[in-house]
Amino acid sequence: MNFITLLNNINKNELIDKLNLAIALTAGLMAWAFPYRSFLIAFAVLGPLHYLTELHWIRSKAYFTASSGWKWFAAIGAILIALPRALYGIAKWMDIKVLDWIPWLGLFSQYTDVLIFSGIAVAVILVLRPPKASANWFILSALLIAISLQSFENYHFIVGLLLPTIIHVYIFTLAFMLYGSLQSSSKWGFATFGLVLMIPFALLFAPINAPVHELQDTVKDTWLQSGFHVLNTGLRAILGISDGTTFFFYEQAEIKMQSVISFAYIYHYLNWFSKTTIIQWHQQITAKSGPLLAVVWFMLMGLFAVNYTLGFSVALIFSFAHVLFEFPVNIHSFKGIYESIRLRLRSS
What we know:
- 78% of the residues lie in helices and 0% in strands.
- By secondary structure, the protein is mainly α.
- It has one domain (3-65, 153-347).
- Helix 3 runs parallel beside helix 13.
């Protein structure tokens, strides 16, 4: 089954479309009621299971590319991108200075965003399949642009932080949903798409009860050590809500922004698990791969339970792997949206 055939099945089942709408509402309520706790639990429990099952599914579909080299590029790239971040987290857990341990790590970590940027460029080429000469020039240009932008802080914020996080879990999920709805013309699919689009705005303007969100010191320490506050402060800076240099757990702006982030992540995870009867990723799990996936999942959850920062650091490798391996799927989605809209305009 190729990618187009696969997506043609999306949103054709009215029951699943209605379920997704209910999931969106549930994720929004959870994020509004418990913005910090719901995120921490979802990231530690649903996150690893999502990474593992999606990676397994993408592998079973030949990575959605005709290139045998993509899997090596994505795998090695994910390790190189995640390694500095993982080592920093592990070193923090061990209470050692990682730069004294690995002196070159600081310099190396500054260039990992080049791999993410290049990964998108390679995925575009693999999906669009331009002439070889044009493809080579495109990739070379992308690499030079990525290197030349190294001195710009906004480049690192967008490529190194937003792309693997909120763009991946929210924008790419919306694109996948929209293409499926365009293919099926499902009113429930479009309704869910519109709802997922509107919920973040509703969360930003919804009233909050700050005392409900009071956290134990250990939870706040875990939050800060894992660096989850960085995305919150960065998004508030983009929207002009703050200057991006401060973070306070109980300020309304921080709570509301975290509600938006938590919704994006929770819905992203739950939406994936609701697709079992549509894209049937669960059918690719065999008697051999199933137990292995379960063991790795429980191992990662165990690390989160022992020390959240440690679990987060190890899970980053799987997280970045699933982000990179999904790039061809994301490009297919945007290509499909463009072609579907163009076809509708021509026939109107």
